[in-house]
Write a structure and sequence with these properties.
Blueprint (H helix, E strand, L loop, with lengths): L2 H26 L4 H27 L4 H19 L5 H21 L1
Helix pairs in contact: 1-2, 1-4, 2-3, 2-4, 3-4
Protein name: Ferredoxin
Length: 109
């Protein structure tokens, strides 16, 4: 892995974590909270997985591949769930999750 790939993945993870937190907060304000429950749960899990992967990459952990594999799987699930909803915050989150999953795929290999 080269430094540019690593830096891009860290940025994608941190951007995704922020998008997930924004989405979760916005979903909690939606009129039909029951419909958004899975979205909020996945947003929170995804934000945590993204921060973990970014931290592991920043410190040069021996477990980067495992952290990125977890992040990849969580981002894919979150992108699928958020993609079901028409709200812009959900669509933005789905895009950030898809980009992060793509970035983590190389790191998890």
């Amino acid at each position: 892995m080269n430094d540019a790939t690593l830096a891009a993945c860290i940025k994608a993870c941190l951007d995704c974590a922020a998008a997930c937190e924004t989405c979760a907060s916005a979903c909690l304000g939606e009129a039909n909270l029951d419909m958004m429950r899975d979205c909020v749960r996945l947003d929170r899990d995804c934000a945590d997985a993204c921060r973990l992967a970014a931290t592991f990459m920043q410190r040069g952990s021996d477990r980067i591949a495992e952290a990125c594999a977890l992040c990849l799987a969580t981002c894919r699930a979150c992108a699928a769930e958020c993609g079901k909803h028409k709200a812009e915050h959900c669509q933005a989150c789905a895009r950030a999750c898809a980009a992060c999953a793509d970035a983590c795929a190389a790191m998890a290999a």
